[in-house]
Design brief:
The chain is mainly alpha-helical. It is 70% helix and 4% strand. A hairpin with a 2-residue loop joins β1 and β2.
Length: 301
Amino acid sequence: MRAVGTTIHRGRRLTSEPVGYLLILPFYVFFFTFVVIPILINLLLSFTNFDLRSISFVGLKNYVALFTDKFFLDSLRNTGIYTFFTLIFTLVLSLLAAIFLNQRLIGKNIYRTCFFLPHVTSMVAVSMIWFWIYEPSHGILNKLLALFGIGGQNWLYDVTWALPSIIVMSVWKYMGYYMVIYLAGLQGIPVYLYEAAKIDGTNAIQRFINITLPMLRPVTFFLFVTGVINNFNVFEQVLILTNGGPMNSTTTVVHQIYIRAFTDFLMGYAAAQAFFVLIVVTLLTLLFFRHGSRAVDLEVQ
């Protein structure tokens, strides 16, 4: 009997065709040209002292300097705080929004569009909008607080409020994308599970905990992993809103790489920072896949 997807030719089984390799060749050319080769060049530069005018080999000096660089250590801390709170709030709020917009509502497509619009809007445009919202003298936020007798803040110029302000803006920006993914997951849950649970006398909270959350675990795992990777690359909003200030309270690892490379022209040191961040993100991703995917498989089974 002939196997599906194979061809029998003179007693030999042909499992592939040369045309298949030709069709995927453009992807690999792009991947090696714009991903693998730049990573290798960056790795080589990280062992040098390169300032655009001269280059010299310094070995591991740049990597050793990372752990004594206060600015880089601060950026790691800020990036970790930003990633944690942005991801948690975005996941929770987007799930609640998806559940709400998955109901039978009048004009729900309009609501979905409004939620999704910030995601497709340029980060530069969004940052400029929120810059004026946070403006201490004439900003909308302080004027709204004044209506309730609450004193305004120097949101982007205060060490206490600067990073939380960027987190709030980022949550608002990313919620639409997360909501759409959660909506797809919700619509993929079999209706008979909820019907059977209702027959058993469960309430809405019990159905949410015992059906919705477990069935959405693969979706949540996907959003969690991609969210960590994306949030570690936060840069535009930091550069536009605060430029890492005040007192480096909002500087992030990518912002530090930018400063070292294009302000201080320490290309070798910036390359070491970039490669170190690549290693950290790769290890985190592998850790999540090792333990998180196992939990997802057990839950789905």
